[in-house]
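Hey, quick one: can you model this chain's 3D structure?
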Amino acid sequence: MTSRRDFLQYAAVSALATGFSSGLTKAAATQSLTQDDLLQFDSKGSLTLLHITDIHAQLKPGYYRPPSENYGVGAFEGIPPHLVGESFLKHFKLERGSALAYAHTMTDYIDLARSYGKLGGLDRIATLIEAVRTDRGDNNVLLLDGGDTWQGSYTALKTNAQDVVDCMALLKPDAMVGHWEFTLGSDRVLEIVNNMNYPFLAGNIVDT
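Sure thing. Here's the predicted structure for all 208 residues.
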């Protein structure tokens, strides 16, 4: 039985293995995750927090290569979150070629992408959320949206974010905050917020 911590980590990597072109991909493929794997977890405690962030209006699964450079300045050099590649794997004790290595680093990216496939997809996220709510009960689950949600895709640009706003409403978040949402302009942000059926939380926002 997968632990809740492992479940939440693995939920970011929900594709099946499709390629077997090298020794590394064969090793990675043996760790491929199915939907059944993701939905097997032990319920603990009385409240479950589900957190979504930075989907940047990407509604369909896609390939994502984590950056190969991330520079920390001064005292922040060489420490999380400014770690990439082998340094990231070593610090967080992640097995090279694993699903988590694929999700969080660019190490062996091409081979792992061939094995694990695409990441994300709001339909897949919805399936996981529904499974957790069914298991725990709606009143025992809080779904929180960390922002960077309405901006970042071509369809969001062409619909002024309405496509992703409508899709997120179907997930029924309990609250969200904003980040790149504000690039839509104050009028559009307020228009969306005033028509949402869940709270938009904000602080330290100044209109000059």
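One thing worth noting: The two ends are 53 Å apart (CA to CA).
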